[in-house]
Amino acid sequence: VQVVESGGGLVQAGGSLRLSCAVSGTIFSVNDMGWYRQAPGKQRDLVAVITRAGSTRYSDSVKGRFTISRDNAIDTMYLQMNGLKPEDTGVYYCNAEIGVRVGVNITYWGQGTQVTVSS
What we know:
The chain is elongated and about 50 Å long. The protein has no helices and eleven strands. Strand 9 and strand 10 form a beta hairpin. The protein has about 120 residues and is mainly β. The strands form two sheets. Strands 2, 4, 5, 6, 9, 10 and 11 form a seven-stranded mixed β-sheet that branches.
């Protein structure tokens, strides 16, 4: 199983980026997925999560600016980030609960993608 993020980069404050997270490999299902970020010297924090059915939850710091979505047909999750602020800088990680076979779920993390917002 592979969980791969893409779409990070350098952007000016107020700009936008779209992150993607693709799951591949021999899997039974992809259940809850989420984005987390880790700023330098800080712990990894939740940004947003989405269930397989499409229910979402956001951290207060990104509500109204970020939108999480997913395409179950291709096992891919997205994070549309608008109105970026310097404090959004960090490594963004994809988290996915994957059913590897009936009744067996394993949580996987991607390798992370760097997002840098300049002021």
